[in-house]
Structure formats: structure tokens, C-alpha cells
Design goal:
Layout: H1 2-27, H2 47-59, H3 85-92, E1 96-98, E2 106-108, H4 122-128, H5 140-143, H6 152-159, H7 164-173, E3 176-177, E4 195-197, E5 204-205, H8 231-246, H9 250-278
Antiparallel strand pairs: 1-2, 3-4, 4-5
Helix pairs in contact: 2-8, 7-8
Length: 284
């Protein structure tokens, strides 16, 4: 009896998961996983990519999207973009922040200040964006993600997959169409002021395509290597930077986790050896 109930429950769970997967597929196109440097249990951030991503964010995204959980000094912390303290101080000084104790209520920012919001309040942000409130970028890469069908998601626990937010953002930035494509759902009508996007839920997004080829000029690296100035490259760079903003201590967390796992393995071995020693002379 118990075995029959267990089988019925398992089948019901699989049907339910299949239904969820089907709904996710209807919501948008399949999001492909990108080859991120920070993927996997040993992955780390690419410092050069984070610096390029910060440039894209500053020159393109920051005009609408804030990052109020990020301080200027975070940019110089280990595992991040790798800016020097002098560079961070110079960068902060370019911005003005509100301070009731300062003359006129504003002063130049310092390294300890949070990244300034482009708008004074939410209503001003809505007025400037057709009624839509641009989301804050601080933890957006962790707030967004992808839905894997059963049983694919089971393997995520073993591969350490946590780049769903970055994959989604990359796909979103590359999913715009100049007009409604033939692949759009039957009967789909795009409202005025909206843009068609393959990956945005409902396909109608209020944000215009923010990136275009050549819109951001990258400086050659110290080794003289140049990076393509394309939408695909900009998208990858800013997605990686947003992942860092959402989890700036990802590398140290992975290192700590590896040390903890190693300790647990050694501790289990010691406990087993102790048990064998204690019970060696006792019949059982």
C-alpha cells in the first residue's frame, strides 16, 4: 500500500514539475547558459571584465538605474573590479551627494558614500520613464533567474549553478526586436511605448534597447588586447558586473565553503578512526 502511494506521489510531482516547465517555456524563449568566469565551485570574477562592466553601467545604465547598496569603496575591495583607492576617491569626487550638515545640503561624495541615485524619489523616476520605475541594480542579478525543467535543475545542486540572474540579464539585453517577430505568441499586440523582447515575461518591456554597437568605447588593455564593442560584449560585461554587485564576496565564500567541506571530510575520517579504536576490543 505504501509503495503504491509513493509511486502515485512521485508521478504527480513529475506531472506538476512538467506543467511548471511548460508554463515557463510559454513565458519566453529558452535562455542559454553563458560561459562565465565565475561559474562553478572554483570560478572567480574576471577583473578586466568587471572594469568594462562598470564602464557600461556608468555610461549607459546609471542614468536610470541606481545601486544604493554599493559604496564607492567597494570598487577597490579584493575580488572586485580592482580599482585603486586613489581611483575610487577621484571617482567619488565627481559626484554630489545629499548631506544635511553640508552647506547648501550637498557635498562631493567620498569613498564611503553609496552610489548616488539618478532621481530624487520614485515619483520623479516614474515621471522620467513613462510611468515605469527602473529597478535598482544592487542585487538585481540575484533577484532574477531562469527556470530549468525537471530533472535538469537537480544537477544544479552538484554543479553549483548560480548564474541564472546573469544569464537572464544577458539574454534580455540581446532579446530586443525592432518589430514584433513571427515567433511572437498568436494574437500578440504590442502596446504603444513598449518594445518586444524575447525573454521579458509577456514580451512587452517598457525599457528601450539600452545598448548599441559602438555606444561605449573600451580602452585597450595593458597587454594591448582590444575587446569587441558590440551589444553582445557590452551585455556580457555589464551582466558580470551586476553579478558582482549582487554578490561581491562570491569568491571568498567559495573559498570558505571549500575549506569547510575539506574540514568535514577530515573530521568524519577522524571520528570513524576514533570509533574503531574505542570499540576494537569489545565484542558486538
Amino acid at each position: 500500500m505504501f509503495k503504491t502511494k509513493f509511486i502515485i506521489a512521485a508521478v504527480a510531482a513529475m506531472v506538476g514539475l512538467s506543467a511548471v516547465s511548460a508554463q515557463a517555456a510559454e513565458a519566453g524563449a529558452t535562455i542559454e547558459r553563458q560561459n562565465w568566469s565565475f561559474a562553478g565551485i572554483f570560478g572567480t570574477y574576471d577583473e578586466n571584465q568587471l572594469q568594462r562592466g562598470f564602464q557600461v553601467y556608468r555610461e549607459v545604465c546609471a542614468s536610470c538605474h541606481g545601486a544604493n547598496l554599493i559604496a564607492f569603496r567597494n570598487l577597490s575591495e579584493p575580488g572586485g573590479p580592482g580599482f585603486s583607492e586613489q581611483q575610487v576617491k577621484a571617482l567619488a569626487a565627481e559626484y554630489q551627494v545629499e548631506d544635511a550638515t553640508a552647506e547648501g545640503g550637498r557635498r562631493p561624495a567620498v569613498a564611503a558614500d553609496r552610489w548616488p541615485s539618478p532621481f530624487a524619489n520614485d515619483q520623479e523616476a516614474r515621471d522620467a520613464n513613462g510611468g515605469s520605475l527602473p529597478p535598482d541594480f544592487s542585487v538585481l542579478a540575484k533577484a532574477r533567474g531562469v527556470t530549468d525543467p525537471f530533472p535538469t535543475w537537480v544537477f544544479n545542486y552538484f554543479t553549483g549553478y548560480q548564474e541564472g540572474g546573469a544569464d537572464y540579464i544577458y539574454a534580455l539585453l540581446n532579446g530586443y526586436h525592432d518589430e514584433v517577430p513571427e515567433t511572437a505568441p498568436e494574437g500578440f499586440e504590442l502596446a504603444e511605448g513598449k518594445y518586444y523582447n524575447d525573454y521579458f515575461p509577456g514580451h512587452a518591456i517598457g525599457m528601450a534597447p539600452p545598448l548599441a554597437d559602438g555606444s561605449v568605447t573600451y580602452e585597450p588593455g595593458e597587454d594591448g588586447v582590444t575587446v569587441p564593442e558590440t551589444v553582445e560584449q557590452y551585455s556580457a560585461d555589464v551582466s558580470a558586473f551586476m553579478m558582482w554587485m549582487a554578490e561581491p564576496h562570491l569568491v571568498s565564500r567559495k573559498q570558505t565553503g571549500f575549506v569547510v567541506l575539506l574540514f568535514l571530510v577530515l573530521f568524519a575520517g577522524l571520528m570513524y578512526a576514533t570509533k574503531r579504536k574505542l570499540w576494537a576490543g569489545i565484542e558486538h
